[in-house]
Design brief:
single chain; alpha/beta; 180 residues; Rossmann fold
Length: 180
């Protein structure tokens, strides 16, 4: 089980897609004894998108998600460093904030995008994807395989990218050795 003192910092993608698919409560359930943060850059992305997706309001109004408004010089320097690597066409600023918070404060970053995850891995930062959280919850008896199969299929009906097609979660997770 995840230690009570752990702090999770979420990227826009997981929160956005779980909210759009109606599964945001699962992330709340899985992180309930821990601190959950988003950097201001993630909040800005959500604010920008909320006019076209009303369900994003539930993230912005969630009492279990705090917005980190760090103005620490180390954080700002790290954000700028990641910004040079990741931001293109105004996109990926959320990932920059998540990576900077993870680097500066040792938070567990929840990022599903491949490039920021590779950066985190290369820099030996603690990054996890939502599938890892879900599979851990299955192993710990918090969620069932059937529930996560439904969740994954709902995510795939939107624009979320997962390493399997609808109906493929169980086979993928078993093949990866993430569930029995």
């Amino acid at each position: 089980m995840t230690p009570v003192s752990e702090t999770f910092v979420f990227d826009t993608g997981p929160l956005r897609h779980f909210a759009l698919a109606g599964w945001l409560g699962v992330l709340k359930y899985l992180t309930h004894d821990n601190n959950v943060l988003i950097p201001e850059s993630v909040e800005a992305e959500l604010l920008e998108q909320r006019h076209s997706h009303a369900s994003l309001e539930q993230i912005l109004n969630a009492d279990w998600i705090a917005v980190d408004q760090s103005d620490d010089i180390q954080y700002l320097a790290e954000f700028a460093r990641y910004e040079k690597r990741l931001v293109a066409g105004g996109r990926n600023r959320g990932e920059c904030g998540v990576l900077a918070l993870g680097r500066c404060y040792g938070y567990t970053m929840i990022i599903d995008d491949r490039v920021p995850r590779k950066i985190a891995d290369d820099e030996k930062l603690h990054a996890r994807g939502t599938l890892a959280l879900l599979c851990e919850a299955i192993r710990e008896g918090q969620l069932t395989v059937s529930m996560v199969e439904s969740l994954a299929d709902d995510l795939l009906t939107g624009t979320y990218h997962l390493p399997f097609k609808p109906g493929g979660f169980r086979v993928w997770a078993t093949w990866q050795g993430l569930i029995n």
